[in-house]
Specification:
97 residues, mainly alpha, transmembrane
Length: 97
């Protein structure tokens, strides 16, 4: 069986195929985590479930310490996941042609 009979991905050397899979996983996983982190950050920033007697808008209520921790973790996850997706795209762009 000639290398051209197995398809373009399997005809590549193993390390190059692995880079393709790794970069794809980085792009997909990083993008999904970035969207999830941004969504959680946005929801916790608006606090739609909160009510307070001083203000009529939930966003005007002070944030609780536990909510602040969740917001901080979600923002960090969003930033790191975005960086992972960008690195995966750079690897794919550099090595897959």
């Amino acid at each position: 069986m000639a290398p051209t009979d197995v398809g373009p991905i399997l005809a590549m050397p193993y390390s190059r195929r692995m880079r393709t899979r790794t970069s794809s996983a980085s792009i997909i996983g990083g993008s999904a985590l970035a969207v999830a982190g941004a969504t959680v950050s946005f929801i916790y920033f608006l606090q739609p479930w909160r009510t307070c007697p001083d203000d009529d808008a939930p966003a005007g209520c002070p944030i609780l310490p536990n909510d602040a921790e969740v917001l901080a973790v979600a923002m960090i996850v969003a930033v790191l996941a975005t960086a992972t997706a960008v690195v995966g795209a750079a690897i794919r762009r550099r090595h897959v042609r």
